[in-house]
């Protein structure tokens, strides 16, 4: 029922084999993406379409782990519209592909339930989601678009990237009680007018508005709530944080 693969072994040939009518139904396919070899031929939209036809109940979980290559190639061959993507996670990739997030909101509006983007609080791409927003008012925030279009989104974790308080409030209002988990640290919340870290009063106002949107009491994560590999610059083993999350994918409740 559950098949876990490293993306190195994923190919059209394998998808063709998995799409054979003689195979047992797959309920969950888990792909782990690390470095992507230059010779990797990737997969095609047609083969994912065939796979989904054969396994209509299958959900796809994609985990990018320390994968700058994976983030870079999300919109140029790693993702396909017919993928039954329900869970997308990027761990310690030190980059967010904003264009790919916009693709996800269009391609996976009926399937995406879980989005996790995790990096250390101290890395060079901290401002990727907020830089240039003042000059580009025409383009909506990609996470707000996901919250609007992905009608089944129930979990959002954003660690290690600055994010505007008004956008967090917008996500809460768009998803309402359907958003079961909204995990954003207090130390990532930015004041909208200055893009500086939100002060105590700002945080309280954001928490109050988010709570109203979600229909329950909500608080941002405190620094003490975060794993050491997220909250410090020390070289803690990130596997200690990642492994329990990805191993849980193999269990279907």
TrEMBL record:
GO terms for biological process: positive regulation of protein ubiquitination. It comes from the Eukaryota. PANTHER family: F-BOX ONLY PROTEIN 33. This is Uncharacterized protein. It comes from Cherax quadricarinatus (Australian red claw crayfish).
